[in-house]
């Protein structure tokens, strides 16, 4: 059984959200506890459609550990969903 992993596209980190293609998936990773979760484009748009992913990242807090040490990534998922 394969584990699902997120493959980020690092170039998209500096793009404003509205510039990122709609076929891209988004994930948020807590750099403190290393958890990676899906995040909906709509949720990010509410936080700032004209902000880059790099600018949006400090606004989010981890639901598991409570730290504000997030990194939002655009890219694609590979493997099976568990």
What report would you give on this structure?
- With 82 residues, this protein is α+β, with helices and mostly antiparallel strands.
- Helix content is 15%, strand content 27%.
- The protein contains 2 helices and 4 strands; from the N terminus they run βββααβ.
- A 4-stranded antiparallel sheet has the order 1-4-2-3.
- Strand 2 (25-30) and strand 3 (36-38) form a beta hairpin.
- It starts with a strand and ends with a strand.
Question: What is the secondary structure topology, with strand pairs?
Answer:
Blueprint: E1 5-8, E2 25-30, E3 36-38, H1 41-48, H2 53-56, E4 70-78
Antiparallel strand pairs: 1-4, 2-3, 2-4
* Shape verdict: globular
Please count the helical segments. Answer: 2
The tally of strands reads: 4
Percentage of residues assigned to helices: 10-25%
* Mean pLDDT over all positions: 91
Approximate strand percentage: 25-35%
Describe the oligomeric state of these chains in a short phrase. Answer: single chain
